[in-house]
Amino acid sequence: MAVTWRAVLLAALGIPVVLLVPMSGTVIVWAVLVVLACGVDAWLAASPREVAVRREVPASVRLGEPVRSTVTLTHVGGRRRLRAHVRDAWPPSAGATPGGDPGTGGRGAQTHPDRHAVDLAPGDARRVRTLLVPTRRGDLRGDRVTIRAWGPLGLAARQASVDVPTRLRVLPAFRSRRHLASRLARLRELDGRAAVQIRGAGTEFDSLREYVMGDDVRSIDWRASARRADVVVRTWRPERDRRVMIVLDTGRTSAVRVQDEPRLDAGIEAALLLSALAQHAGDRVELLAYDRRVRARVAGTSGPRLMPALADQLAGVTPALVETDWPGVVAQVRARMSQRALVVLLTTLEPVVVEHGLLDVVAGLADRHQVVVASVADPEVAELARGRADATAVFDAAAAERAGLERAAVAVRLRQRGAEVVEGLPDDLAPRLADTYLALKAAGRL
Amino acid sequence: MSTTDVHAGSHPAGVVGDGTTTRSRAAGRWRRLRVPLALVAALLVIGLLAALPEPRTSTTPLAPDNPGPTGARAVAQILGRHGVDVQYTRRFADVVAADAPGVTVAVLGESALGDAQVDALRGLGADLVLVGTPWTAEQVAGIRGGFGATSDAPRPARCDDPDARAAGTVVSTGALVAAPGQVGCFPSAGASVAYVVAQVDGRRVAALGSADLLTNDHLQTAGNAALALRVLGRGERLVWYLPSWDDPWDGTASDETLASTMPPWTGPLLWMLALVVVVAGVWRGRRFGRLVVEPLPVVVRAGETTRGRGRLYRRGRAHGHAAAALRAATASRCAARLGLPRSAAAPDVIDAVARATGRDAAGVEELLYGPPPTTDSALAQLAGRLDTLESEVHRS
């Protein structure tokens, strides 16, 4: 049961009446009249419980990209015409936006983009669409669909909310894929497919071919040249079928917000770019999201199925407010990686945390694997370090400088234990990590 | 009207209904509302039980509903039990409205009486009992006030008035002086009496010098009760008027009150407006489906620990620590820019910086490794100088 502004108007029409007949009885009679009119109107409305509701959304959408939620309403009831408003309710982070279904919103479509007007004869069906632009990664669950069926006078309505279970998986944005093209081009340069041949670009023997002007004379294979009339050079290519293990730290330090986004999201961006690059380079990628237990794992997937699998697994990963169990991480890596591999730890260079966790275990990992520690830096600290406005700002700047020195010291200690350290602002981390990967590959250190 | 299926129906075209029927919804509403309703009902019952058996009482002196020592509930209740209709009022308009021959109007106290009211009292047709109102008594009947007897000694009647003779003796501090032709009773040691009866304009005006003999406290003393009951209970009806400062009566508009100055439709109009407000509340208050909730992540700003450390530095006035951090950071950045290894010793850094900037080595050493500043301003100055040095290294 709900009433409209018309019911308020009807009640207000009693004001001139009470001026004409100034008695308390008038008010009572008018109140009864309003209640009766609303009751009869609601009684005459079509039942909102005799509407079949179906809601359809795509299985997944990238964060920040628009998607339409389509609600199909079928009037399965009796003779009455259904004039109703429908609310397709989604959580706030689904980001319902005006413009999903022009023409059905009517007034208020700007403020309530999830509401739609429908007018259905018995047996008819109608689709209404709500434009969603999700603002958070993860699984969005559609809430109830509420139908408010108006009576013929438009005074009152009957209302029912129907549970229509719907799930929309919001995948990571993968904004860093704009860096992919340039990195792939550099990968191809390494790969010997491009025109330029540089000796040392890779360590794996690829093939022999005829010498052309401009080739490095040091790459001439004299033994092969002796067998033939021509001078023959060796070409090289980067190693293939190496293994890459990306470990995403989802512990408490990943919950910290950098530029209004958890550190974890920057880590996910970096993981996605690196995976895409490594997959193109012919390496086998595995991913593990871990704090004290496994939050997500992608293993044994390759080729075109890798990136969708990664996005799907990473969609629901959220920071957990626990301390990361680094020995556990090492055990996981050992269990998965029997051969030498590139192990990328996407975490934070928080000096205290690193000293009590990562530092103890990184040497053990680096013995067998190439370890890269990638960390999200904070532009706010850099901002603080420049503060000179007053004494408070200078103290803050000193604190920021001290924190920076400590981070640098910890990075040095990590490097001493055999790990590569990559630090970057949220937007820079992904391309820097990709560059590190390419450099390692070019140097044959995978 | 109602769907008959209990579970949310499945239909080829989707989900039908919310799994409720008219009956289940009514049951649900009853389940939700029964506790609040029971509470409201219990409150009502408790309120009624508390309010019903206990008549209203007050603490106003001389009020007929005041059971305290200064009240007059005893005499009013005895009068009521003997068939006298006691009407208690604090508004003069009620006195005027009740005025009729045979009615007794008792006026208790005169401090709140205005001239207009005294004039109006003189013009009334009802019998008057003026209690503790010497000025009014003089205006109405020429009975003047005297100098009071303060003793507690019983005062015998010593007059021909039958009421006074029936009472015998009273104890009162009242002091009145009877004019010629009036009957004065219960004289004290002086010339004043406690009770005067006069006939004015064909009606009886009785004056009691003091109200003390009416009070619950003194009613049992001597013949006080007999006198009070006989004087007040002469007629079938008694108007018990206790003048009030809040009474705006001035004789010109006899029954003016706040309510009567308003047009007759005011009350109904207010009720109608209340109805409109209620309907508007229902209009705006009904939610279009429930509020959708969503778990939100914690927000921890990345710079918070750094700011916290800065605040600790400031609170501890750790100028030395702060300066050391700034110097070390500058030195390490300069060294990195000049291609020195991280392990470079201080003299090497000083040499390199001095060469790069063209400053003399002593100045650079003082700046990078000098004594710590001790004040806020010195620290800020040092920070500025370090910035300058660093920018010069950058330029070179």
Automatic annotation (TrEMBL), chain B:
<keyword id="KW-0472">Membrane</keyword>
<protein>
    <recommendedName>
        <fullName>DUF4350 domain-containing protein</fullName>
    </recommendedName>
</protein>
<feature type="domain" description="DUF4350">
    <location>
        <begin position="64"/>
        <end position="232"/>
    </location>
</feature>
<feature type="transmembrane region" description="Helical">
    <location>
        <begin position="265"/>
        <end position="283"/>
    </location>
</feature>
<dbReference type="Pfam" id="PF14258">
    <property type="entry name" value="DUF4350"/>
</dbReference>
<feature type="transmembrane region" description="Helical">
    <location>
        <begin position="33"/>
        <end position="52"/>
    </location>
</feature>
<feature type="region of interest" description="Disordered">
    <location>
        <begin position="1"/>
        <end position="22"/>
    </location>
</feature>
<dbReference type="InterPro" id="IPR025646">
    <property type="entry name" value="DUF4350"/>
</dbReference>
<keyword id="KW-0812">Transmembrane</keyword>
<keyword id="KW-1133">Transmembrane helix</keyword>
